[in-house]
């Protein structure tokens, strides 16, 4: 019975032997060389399961535990407000140079993206834009056209820091530098979008009055008399100095300032009234100045569009744009109305030629087949080679 027991020689469940059972000694073996039969079978050696073997610690990956380095770009400028103002002043001094405009405009865009344009520095940044637009037509030059477009497009992110006057200035500059430059594009969608913005700006203009025409005539007269401005300023300075000298002689001890004829209350009321009148007049002058600059920018855009009429896919959009300006001609001054009338007459003449099958230059338009037929009429074509080979057959036979 004991030999049939399968669990003979196994340790109890709680015990975990770490060593094998001892082997039988030499004394238990007989001297004749035969093995002595034991009364009970020897316990079988205990084998450990492979699943219960001790696991050796794996070598740690130092590279995995090391903190990973990430490439991060700085989005802010660690500079004081004084340093930012100095940088803006340097940019404003260089941005008027066409050769340095590209680099200067990129630096100005970086200041916007870094958040350095704040209420404390906005006046200096407007000085950069004003220096860039010192010449009305410089923004449409082919060498700096893309840089102007990028600069004034990025400037739209700082409108919340601008005053009403500065916002009006930026609107007029954007019409020249962004919308005007979009008219030079080769993308029909961008061109149509720019034309739509111009039409909306024309529709938003108020109708001009006789005062606007008078002011325009006065402005033209002032431009013609610009050569005499220096002389007039010198005369004003001399008259002001003589008036001050006369007052000093009449009141050498300054007693007139102490002998006021009105009370302080009357002076305060008078000062408030004068301040209200001055502020109202300043607002009116600013509104007139904005309308004037906006009208000039729109006229510039119309001229740019008219110069691109020779491109076939632009012609329909330009027809609609100039027709819209002519229909709203009362929103412009007298001089601008004359310019729009001449522009519409030119566009209408070219439109009539198109209806007659002629191009802008006056020649008859040709389709693709007629153009190829004229091009290859004098070329030779070979049976074994491409068109233009040394064969005797003419291209007229190939084209039918």
Whole-number average pLDDT?
76
Helix content: 40-55%
Overall, the morphology is flat
Radius of gyration: 46 Å
Q: Quickly give the structural class.
A: mainly alpha
Topology order in helix (H) and strand (E) letters: HHHHHHHHHHHHHEEH
Report low-confidence residues grouped into runs of 5 or more.
none
Q: Widest sheet: strand order?
A: 1-2
Number of helices: 14
End-to-end Cα distance, whole Å, is: 115 Å
Q: Note the quaternary state here.
A: single chain
Q: Which band does the percent of strand residues land in?
A: under 5%
How is the biggest beta sheet arranged? 2 strands, antiparallel
Q: What is the strand and helix layout of this fold?
A:
Blueprint: H1 62-65, H2 81-94, H3 101-113, H4 122-132, H5 145-154, H6 164-182, H7 188-203, H8 210-224, H9 229-250, H10 264-307, H11 312-327, H12 334-355, H13 368-375, E1 380-381, E2 393-394, H14 395-399
Antiparallel strand pairs: 1-2
């Amino acid at each position: 019975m004991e030999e049939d027991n399968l669990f003979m020689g196994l340790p109890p469940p709680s015990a975990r032997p770490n060593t094998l059972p001892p082997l039988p000694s030499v004394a238990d073996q007989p001297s004749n060389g035969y093995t002595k039969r034991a009364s009970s079978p020897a316990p079988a050696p205990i084998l450990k399961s492979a699943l219960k073997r001790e696991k050796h610690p794996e070598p740690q990956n130092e590279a995995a535990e090391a903190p990973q380095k990430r490439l991060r770009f700085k989005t802010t400028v660690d500079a004081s407000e004084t340093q930012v103002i100095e940088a803006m002043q340097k940019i404003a001094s260089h941005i008027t140079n066409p050769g340095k405009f590209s680099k200067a405009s990129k630096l100005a865009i970086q200041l916007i993206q870094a958040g350095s344009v704040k209420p404390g520095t906005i006046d200096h940044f407007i000085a950069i834009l004003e220096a860039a637009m010192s010449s009305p037509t410089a923004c449409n030059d082919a060498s700096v056209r893309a840089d102007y477009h990028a600069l004034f497009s990025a400037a739209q992110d700082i409108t919340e820091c601008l005053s009403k006057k500065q916002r009006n200035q930026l609107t007029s500059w954007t019409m020249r530098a962004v919308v005007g430059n979009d008219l030079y594009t080769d993308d029909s969608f961008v061109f149509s979008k720019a034309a739509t913005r111009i039409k909306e700006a024309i529709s938003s203009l108020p109708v001009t009055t006789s005062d606007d025409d008078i002011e325009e005539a006065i402005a033209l007269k002032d431009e013609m008399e610009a050569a005499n401005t220096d002389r007039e300023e010198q005369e004003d300075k001399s008259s002001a100095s003589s008036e001050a000298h006369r007052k000093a002689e009449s009141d050498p001890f300054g007693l007139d300032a102490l002998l006021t004829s009105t009370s302080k209350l009357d002076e305060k009321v008078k000062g408030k009234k004068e301040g209200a009148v001055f502020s109202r007049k300043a607002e009116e002058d600013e509104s007139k100045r904005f309308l004037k600059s906006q009208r000039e920018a729109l006229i510039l855009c119309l001229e740019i569009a008219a110069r691109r009429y020779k491109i076939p896919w632009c012609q329909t959009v330009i027809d609609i744009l100039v027709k819209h300006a002519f229909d709203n001609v009362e929103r412009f001054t007298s001089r601008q109305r004359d310019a729009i009338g001449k522009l519409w007459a030119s566009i209408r003449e070219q439109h009539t030629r198109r209806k007659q099958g002629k191009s802008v230059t006056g020649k008859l338009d040709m389709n693709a087949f007629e153009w190829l037929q004229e091009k290859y009429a004098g070329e030779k074509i070979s049976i074994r080679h491409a068109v233009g080979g040394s064969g005797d057959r003419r291209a007229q036979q190939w084209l039918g």
